[in-house]
C-alpha cells in the first residue's frame, strides 16, 4: 500500500471510530460499570417490556403495510403513465423532506379530537391520536419512501420481458407474479424493508407528538429511553438504549449475512 | 400447424408499425421475416404470439381465429432477442417452467428436461444460473425453454442478433438442423439477409410495416420485385443510367444491354441494380459494351477478390472469381453480365439514402 493510501485509510477509519464506535462503546461501558443487573432489572419492568413490544408492533405494522403498498405503488410508477405521475413521484420523497415533528403535528391537526376527521372518529368512539392507530400512521408516514425508492429502480431495470416469457409459457398472472416477478424484485424489497425496520425502531419525533407518551399505553422504546433520561434514571436509560441498539445491530448483521448469500 | 396472417395492422400512437400485412406459413416451414430495424417485423411476431393485439386483421392457426386468445392460451414457443431467461432460476428450472406451471408430475418434468437438455447440447450446465452461461449457451437454454412444452409453433425474435459472429454462424446452422428434426412451424425475425437466406424455406421481406416480397431465397435474390428488395438483399451496385429505346447509356458509354423483362421504361433516366458478382472485369475493352473504370481498392479474400472501381463519379464493387491479379489505379473495362432495371431516379435516391442510413452501402 502506498504511503498516501495508508494515511487516507487511517484518517477515514479514525473518523468512523470517533463518530460511530466511540459513542456506542460509551453506552456499553456505562451498562458494564452499572453491572449487567441493570439490564436484568430493566427487562423485569412491565413498563419497559410493554414499550419494547409496542415498538415491535409498530415496526411490524409499518413493514407489512409499506411493503404491500410500496410495491404496488412501484408497479404503478414503473409500468403505467398517467397524468400527475411526476407529481406523485415528487410526493414520495416528501416524508424525507418534512421533519418528523411536523409529520406528527399534521396527524394531530387531522385526527385530533377537534380535527377534520378526528371529530368524526371521536363520535364513533375510535381513538386515533394518543393511541396505536395514530402512532402507526405517523410511523407509516416517515417510513413510506424506503420500499418504493428501493423497488422502483429494480423494477425498471427488470423490464417486462421475463413476464412476457412467463405468459407465453402458459403461466397465469398469479403464477407469473410469485414465480417470476417477486423473486426478481426480492432484493430491492428486502433492502427497503431493512431500512423501514431501522427507521421504525428508531422513530422518535413523529411518535412523541402523536402518542403523548402515556406510560404503559403509548410509550415506545425510544420514548422510554427519553423518559428515563429526563427522569434522571441514567442507568435505566443506558440499559434500554443498549437493548434497542443491540436489536438494530443484530437485524443489520442478519441482513448483511443474507445479502452475502445472495445468488443472483 | 399452419399460420395465416390476414391484413394485420398495428399502430402505436401515430406510428404505423404493421400496415396491412398478409401471408401464409405452411405446417413445418421455417420462414424468415426480414427487414431493416424498425420495419415492424418484431411487432408482427409479437402479434402472432398474442403479446400485442392487432388493430385490424386476423391471426389464424390451422383455420382457427386466434384474435380472442391470449398469449397464454396460444401456447407458442417464443424466443426473445435478449433471451428473457429467469435470472433467479437455473437452466433446468428455466427449461422446466412451462411444465411446472402446467403442474405436470415431477417425473415427467425431470424426463422432459433431461431429454431436451441433450437436444440443445447443454448437458452438464443444468444447474448453472443464466449469469454463469455464455451468450450462445443462454440462447440455447432460451430455445430449450420455448420447446419444452412441445409447441406446434416456434417464434424467434432476432435470435442471434446479440451473439458474436462465430457463435452466431454455428447456431444458425444448428437451428436449421433442429428445425428439420422437430419439424415445428417456425418464424424467425432477422435484419441479417445472410441468416435469412441460409436457413429459411421462405423469406418475407418487410419494409415500413408492409410486405415487399415473399419467396424462396433464390427468388428474392435473383428476381427482386422492387428496388428496395434488390438493394436490401445482398450487396448491390446502384448505377444511374439513361435509356433510349434499346440503348442504355452509362456515363457516356453506350451499352447495348438486352432489355430485361421487368423494364417498362422506354426512354429517360433509369437505375441499374447490379450484383457485385455480375460485374465482369477485363484488362481490354473487347467490345462496345465495355465501360472503362479505374481500380481504387482491392480486397483479396481467398476464393474471391473484391475490387472497388471508380467510374466517373460512381463507386462500384465487383467480385472477381478469376485468379487474375488486379492493381491499384489500373484502367479496366467492366461488363455488366446481369442487372435489374428500375425507372425513376428520384425514388432511387430515396432508396440509396435509406440504405446508406442503414449502413448497407457506403
The appropriate CATH architecture of the largest domain in chain A is Orthogonal Bundle
Share of residues in helices of chain A: over 70%
What is the succession of H and E elements of chain B? EEEHEEHEHHHEHEHEEHHEEEEEEEEEEH
For the record, the count of structural domains of chain B works out to 2
| Largest interface between protein chains, with number of residues from each side | A-B, 19 and 28 residues
Cα-to-Cα separation, first versus last residue of chain B: 42 Å
In CATH terms, the superfamily of the largest domain in chain B is: P-loop containing nucleotide triphosphate hydrolases
Regarding quaternary structure, what we see is: heterodimer
Overall mean confidence score, pLDDT of chain B = 85
Mean pLDDT of chain A: 90
CATH architecture of the largest domain in chain B: 3-Layer(aba) Sandwich
- Topology-level CATH name of the largest domain in chain B: Rossmann fold
Q: Which fold name fills CATH's third level, the topology of the largest domain in chain A?
A: MetI-like fold
Largest sheet of chain B: 6 strands, mixed
The total count of helices of chain A amounts to 13
